[in-house]
Write a sequence for this structure.
């Protein structure tokens, strides 16, 4: 049975055939690349950032984080804006819009002064773009007072957004930097400056592994390197947090949000929708695996909707936001003890080691049987044991106990762990 | 059509790991609390410890663990019956398949060599007491390493021209390359152990008389069990050790004929069959009098020879060798069921039906310790290493008592 669910969704007043967009980066830098991505199934693109300077790139440009030869945990890039001429980029976008009228194109710009921002944004209409993303957040600019330095300063965010908006009739999306303690002030400043929506996040300032021979980090450029943007799977939890905070902020209700950071699969994308995104953007996963990953993003999302009985993505947007609350609001009246399945257990003892060294010394190790035994006097129900267990369904939620003096009530609980 | 493995005699059977693939494999390890793999190693090599080191990015520390615990870590890595020892015990078997401990150990020993690590050392100052080992096979080599590291002068005697015993002469190099054996031995030489090769020692007492305070007898099983069958004297009847040794010394160029029958069901029989196949024999057939389940050979070795196209026929024992012009022509077999019979054309018959001990005098004299195949009747390399280590500990105890330290 082939499942067909409509994945179309409106974002910033623009109808999108699906929420899957390339983010503004090396993956969307010319006609050929983007036409291939559209053919593969992507709903739209945030075109690679265009600025007014043409700085030579370093070589190499990238660093990867994680075990060599395995999927990246994270990815570090130090790439600048598009190296094409402005005219070339405008022409690429025009041709794309002509050949793929049902797909959505956002131009991305980065300026240094209010005049720059205004001028750059005025080009978007010449390119037949559907909208504009303003890059207030690139963390590795070769110049001061640009990129993420702007994004961390709400005053600059507001004035540059205002300047941008003054140069165009198109919707303007302000792209946030994660290199702040709280994203809400910058997002509010962008909205005050006239932005239509917010995209978050740009890359995280990073230093990945240090080279133990050359004593610098990746990528090594003539014996040196720089702090630059980190992306990929490792940053998704950080971005979901920012999205959640903005989604739960009363002053940002109804603002169109685009989620960016560590999206590889339909389920990653769904996470973003559930915390309020109406659109998601992908780069790192495309750099690692290519445009084709969108096929499973589309199909997987349709299967999920079919299985759970959803007919539109609108039903999913923000659905998790009411359930992510302050720690002080969480129920603290009960403990769930782990239930060990002796048949499935392979006797590795990892639960015992971790419970002793990192938990509450609540697991006794039966050396003869090579199986864990729970000491219910010490168990606090933290489930660290389950987190280290290498066997599927070996440790399940077991007995529920109410704390002394606590009133039993109806609870919403997981029945098993992933 | 089946894809049959075709390799050269000196080509190694299994591909090795590189750092990346080795670390991938190490990451499959469950890092057990009381790791059963380590419990299962007779020689105490402690795979759980060295795999954990590799997993936590400490390649040199991993190599150090292997060499300190097992002086023949390189050779054991190649020929250990893992599927009956550490890998069978591996907790990961309960999920999918065990960690490839042998291959990881091989990789780490290669790293030890590449880094030129000196993981074992002998103290400059020697202790009172001289030790000798009879035989330069795995049991003696392990004993010599432990004794030398404890500060004793050790001399190893062997009748052969090269050290290593069965490691050097009795195993097909596809399974155990000579350079692996030589490297293990080099590290033992580097401890200051002296080797007296080409010198057959008939009696432990003779060495004691020559001034050694303690003697280890690890002389192995080098006597050939001759078969008593009609036609057993025909040209083309060979015995396993002679054949394997000749093949190793000639780099696989020994003459074997095109139709080869190997009689036996142990690792030595598998090695003879592999050697014959790798040396270019067209048809190699193993005949074993019992079932595969009863065969002492490691399953990996059985699969290895089968992958080369060698056939294994079970429950058939040779009854007679039929000659033509004084040469092997057919072998006649009788079935275990007492009814079946077979007559099979052959140029060569290799008997791999076990070896016997050649007598060494004075094995029960004071200060004389015995281990390895000569003591256990013929087991694995890792068992020999374990017994050599154990004997060395007893010898040190003996020497300390003798010197009045204890």
């Amino acid at each position: 049975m082939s499942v067909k669910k409509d994945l179309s969704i409106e974002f910033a007043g623009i109808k999108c055939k699906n929420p899957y967009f390339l983010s503004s980066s090396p993956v969307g830098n010319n006609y050929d690349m983007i036409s291939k991505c559209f053919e593969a199934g992507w709903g739209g693109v945030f075109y690679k950032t265009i600025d007014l300077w043409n700085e030579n790139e370093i070589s190499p440009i990238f660093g990867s984080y994680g075990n060599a030869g395995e999927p990246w945990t994270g990815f570090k890039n130090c790439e600048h804006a598009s190296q094409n001429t402005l005219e070339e980029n405008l022409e690429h976008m025009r041709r794309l819009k002509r050949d793929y009228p049902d797909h959505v194109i956002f131009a991305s710009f980065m300026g240094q002064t209010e005049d720059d921002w205004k001028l750059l944004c005025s080009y978007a209409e010449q390119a037949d773009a559907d909208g504009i993303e303003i890059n207030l957040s690139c963390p590795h600019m070769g110049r001061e007072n640009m990129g993420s330095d702007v994004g961390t300063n709400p005053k600059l965010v507001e004035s540059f957004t205002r300047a941008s908006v003054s140069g165009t009739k198109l919707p303007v999306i302000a792209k946030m930097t994660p290199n702040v303690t709280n994203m809400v002030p910058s997002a509010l400043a962008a909205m005050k400056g006239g932005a239509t929506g917010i995209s978050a996040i740009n890359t995280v300032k990073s230093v990945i592994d240090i080279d133990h021979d050359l004593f610098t980090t990746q990528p090594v450029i003539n014996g040196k390197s720089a702090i630059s943007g980190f992306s990929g799977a490792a940053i998704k939890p950080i971005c979901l947090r920012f999205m959640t905070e903005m989604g739960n902020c009363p002053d940002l209700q109804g603002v169109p949000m685009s989620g960016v950071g560590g999206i590889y699969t339909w389920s990653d994308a769904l996470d973003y929708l559930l915390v309020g995104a109406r659109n998601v953007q992908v780069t790192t996963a495309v750099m690692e695996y290519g445009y084709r990953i969108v096929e499973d993003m589309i199909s997987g999302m349709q299967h999920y909707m079919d299985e759970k009985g959803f007919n539109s993505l609108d039903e999913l947007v923000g659905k998790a936001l009411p359930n992510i609350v302050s720690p002080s609001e969480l129920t603290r009246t009960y403990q769930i003890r782990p239930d060990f399945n002796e048949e499935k257990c392979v006797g590795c003892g990892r639960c015992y080691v971790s419970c002793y060294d990192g938990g509450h010394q609540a697991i006794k190790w039966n050396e003869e049987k090579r199986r864990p035994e729970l000491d219910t006097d010490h168990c606090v129900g933290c489930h660290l044991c389950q987190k280290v267990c290498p066997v599927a369904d070996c440790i399940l939620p077991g007995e529920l106990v109410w704390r002394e003096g606590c009133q039993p009530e109806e609870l919403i609980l997981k029945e098993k762990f992933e | 059509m089946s894809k049959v493995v075709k390799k050269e005699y000196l080509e190694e059977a299994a591909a090795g790991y590189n750092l990346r693939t080795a670390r991938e494999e190490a990451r499959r390890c469950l890092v057990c609390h009381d790791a059963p793999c380590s419990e299962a190693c007779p020689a105490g090599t402690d795979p759980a410890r060295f795999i954990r080191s590799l997993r936590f990015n400490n390649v040199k520390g991993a190599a150090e663990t292997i060499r300190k615990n097992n002086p023949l870590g390189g050779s054991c890595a190649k020929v250990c019956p893992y599927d009956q020892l550490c890998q069978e015990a591996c907790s990961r078997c309960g999920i999918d398949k065990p960690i490839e401990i042998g291959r990881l150990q091989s990789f780490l020993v290669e790293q030890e060599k590449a880094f030129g690590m000196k993981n074992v050392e002998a103290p400059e100052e020697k202790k009172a007491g001289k030790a000798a080992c009879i035989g330069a096979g795995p049991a003696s080599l392990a004993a010599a390493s432990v004794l030398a590291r404890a500060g004793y002068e050790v001399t190893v005697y062997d009748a052969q021209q090269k050290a290593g015993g069965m490691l050097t002469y009795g195993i097909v190099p596809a399974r155990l390359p000579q350079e692996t054996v030589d490297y293990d031995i080099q590290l033992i030489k580097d401890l200051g152990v002296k080797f007296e090769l080409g010198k057959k020692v008939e009696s432990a007492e003779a060495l004691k008389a020559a001034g050694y305070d303690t003697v280890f007898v690890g002389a192995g099983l080098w006597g050939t069990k001759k078969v008593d069958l009609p036609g057993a004297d025909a040209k083309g009847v060979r015995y396993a050790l002679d054949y394997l040794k000749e093949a190793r010394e000639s780099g696989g160029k020994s003459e074997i004929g095109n139709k080869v029958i190997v009689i036996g069901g142990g690792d030595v029989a598998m090695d003879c069959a592999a050697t014959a196949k790798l040396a270019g024999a067209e048809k190699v057939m193993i005949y074993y009098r019992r079932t595969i389940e009863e065969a002492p050979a490691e399953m990996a070795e059985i699969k290895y020879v089968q992958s080369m196209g060698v056939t294994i026929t079970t429950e058939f024992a040779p009854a007679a060798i039929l000659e033509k012009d004084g040469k092997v022509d057919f072998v006649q077999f009788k079935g275990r069921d007492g009814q079946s019979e077979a007559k099979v054309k052959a140029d060569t018959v290799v008997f791999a039906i076990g070896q016997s001990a050649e007598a060494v005098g004075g094995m029960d004299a004071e200060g004389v310790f015995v281990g390895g195949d000569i003591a256990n009747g013929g087991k694995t390399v890792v068992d020999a290493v374990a017994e050599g280590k154990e004997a060395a500990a007893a010898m040190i105890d003996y020497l300390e008592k003798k010197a009045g330290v204890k």
Observations:
- Residues 381-402 of chain B form the longest helix (22 residues).
